[in-house]
Inverse folding.
């Protein structure tokens, strides 16, 4: 079960075995610093989402740069992060089921742990789990700000659940989770701004409803890489949870970023040309088991005229324009994944590279289908 | 890095933590037996593809039922299979790069290992690696039978490469790899038959060309779950390499199987309803990090009127028809993955179930992005 890393520290990049997840440390460090400064200057809190990277080493660097903690999406992720030295994890998701709740409550004895709810029965179950573990959990009510996924509707439904949380003996009402996932990948800046203006209005009304009912709402948290400046300047959000900015991906590169701070592509999948059996055709050794294609095919860095056409399980078929020679058999290409989070989830190691040399190997400790 | 299993032996299915990869042992064992009998009765060899399951335990059962060995698609898979007790592995793919070739050649000292080529330089590199390891490798020339991915064109190009292999001191020409991947998922039986008739014709001409040049071609190997009866009755293929038949998936279920032996769905992803925040809406805890959606969304077993609508990273959004109550919060649903191979690759454990009870836990030992 222990998958060996595809490189050793000190190896030149060209010697790394493929497919391998490559992290360009210079770009990655600039991304971490850039987001920390932008959010830090605004005076509100940064709590980056670790579901993107699933790596305690990266989480610790985000905290060192000023983040107050991180988000996770699964109990298994939160456990791996706490095991890896992170002491404040917000599970920005509902946790349902006795086994998971028991683990979550136990984790709250070792670290500051908070979690979302959108159902009154779940509040009861959380309270019982916390009581059984002798723990106290911070609970945020998730509000539907337009994604129509998890989360109750704004205002009264939030007030009712918040009251349930306040009445529970082993829970503490910590605020509201107001994340708009779909909005992150709307291509135009105007479309993203408009979606978040709607979300801000729902949050505003909800916070007012809580106030009218005498319920203090310490935290309003949400936002992603595609929209965070809007939440940051909203006056109602006081915590931001972008994740993808550390890596970026081909899908985010298709967004219009006019007026936004820019983040650099720092994550790549290194791949080898394993077949050049016909002119105009080349096959890479990175397919659907090394790259998530849910948001489209990967881009190829540095090879104009060469396109990643189609992924099969273990192969990537390239199209090479007639006037282009294309890469040779054995040549290694850097691919920009279509979607960073599920791509990372397929790999066991980050091969961290600086100046063309492997500087570190970081395990993707929180990888997995994730209970 | 050691992801704990989501269940213990003896647990009832309903107690298994989610998301979890579930193997219905009764259906799985019938599938293994059914394919072994069908191919065994034809008098030709069965070499199932282990890229589907990545699990030595399953490979050993296939061999026990009559398979002569298995196929793998990566050196890392072949290593895990040999480590797990399989002594005959055909890497049905080109292996390119010094590090991989060194590992492949070393593996050939511990097991019978064969591999594909479609490039003269790769023949030279394979020969050098085998020489350095003091090993001898069986080599099959891959021929393009219509998939236009890897593989040289039929006839003369195959003769040239086979001659190169025969001239190499540490390689043995073992035959041709003639797999038509795209044909497996053509929906109509006629379309699949027609594609394979073309492939058979190309193989036939190629084998004749080899004969004319005095080159014996011991093995002609190929076929998958969607087309194997055609290759089996072709008179030219003498080895078959289906993989998906052990599990099946939603994409294969969409094929027309008229006149085919039927295999049963044995692989599922167990998932929990984690949110029911609005009528008609439910959210599961299995998204793109637990299910590959490259071939469409999963199907839901046993819930008419409930559809898996959309996958996000950690969520699956269900649509519930108005006249249907739908599953309750905390209820567990069995999903039929859209595509079995890349779904298995996301999980670390098979939770093997019989009669509603966990009977075994098998590690997905060859999981990973896979060098």
């Amino acid at each position: 079960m222990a998958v060996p890393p595809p490189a050793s520290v000190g190896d030149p990049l060209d010697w790394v075995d493929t497919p391998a997840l490559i992290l360009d440390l210079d770009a990655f460090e600039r991304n971490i610093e850039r987001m920390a400064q932008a959010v830090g200057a605004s005076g509100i809190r940064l709590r980056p989402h670790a579901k993107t990277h699933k790596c305690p080493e990266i989480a610790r660097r985000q905290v060192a740069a000023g983040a107050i903690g991180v988000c996770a999406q699964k109990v298994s992720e939160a456990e791996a992060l706490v095991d890896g030295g992170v002491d404040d994890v917000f599970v920005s998701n509902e946790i349902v089921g006795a086994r998971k709740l028991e683990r979550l409550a136990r984790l709250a004895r070792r670290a500051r742990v908070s979690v979302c709810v959108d159902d009154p029965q779940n509040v009861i179950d959380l309270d019982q789990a916390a009581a059984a573990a002798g723990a106290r959990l911070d609970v945020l009510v998730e509000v539907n700000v337009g994604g129509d996924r998890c989360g109750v509707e704004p205002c009264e439904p939030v007030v009712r659940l918040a009251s349930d949380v306040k009445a529970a003996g082993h829970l503490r009402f910590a605020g509201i989770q107001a994340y708009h996932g779909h909005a992150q990948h709307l291509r135009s800046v105007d479309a993203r701004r408009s979606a978040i203006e709607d979300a801000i209005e729902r949050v505003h009304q909800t916070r007012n409803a809580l106030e009218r009912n005498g319920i203090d709402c310490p935290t309003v948290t949400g936002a992603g890489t595609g929209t965070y400046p809007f939440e940051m300047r909203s006056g109602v959000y006081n915590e931001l949870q972008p994740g993808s900015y550390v890596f970026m991906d081909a899908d985010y590169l298709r967004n219009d970023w006019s007026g936004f701070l820019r983040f650099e592509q720092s994550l790549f999948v290194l791949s080898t040309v394993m077949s050049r059996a016909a002119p105009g055709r080349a096959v890479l050794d990175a397919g659907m088991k090394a790259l998530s294609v849910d948001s489209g095919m990967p881009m190829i860095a540095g090879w104009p005229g060469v396109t990643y056409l189609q992924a099969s399980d273990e192969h990537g078929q390239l199209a090479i324009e007639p006037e282009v020679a294309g890469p040779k058999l054995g040549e290694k290409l850097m691919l920009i994944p279509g979607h960073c989070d599920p791509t990372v989830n397929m790999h066991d190691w980050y091969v961290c590279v600086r100046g063309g040399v492997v500087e570190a190997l970081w395990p993707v400790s929180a990888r997995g289908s994730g209970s």
Observations:
- The longest strand of chain B covers residues 267-278.
- The two ends of chain B are 18 Å apart (CA to CA).
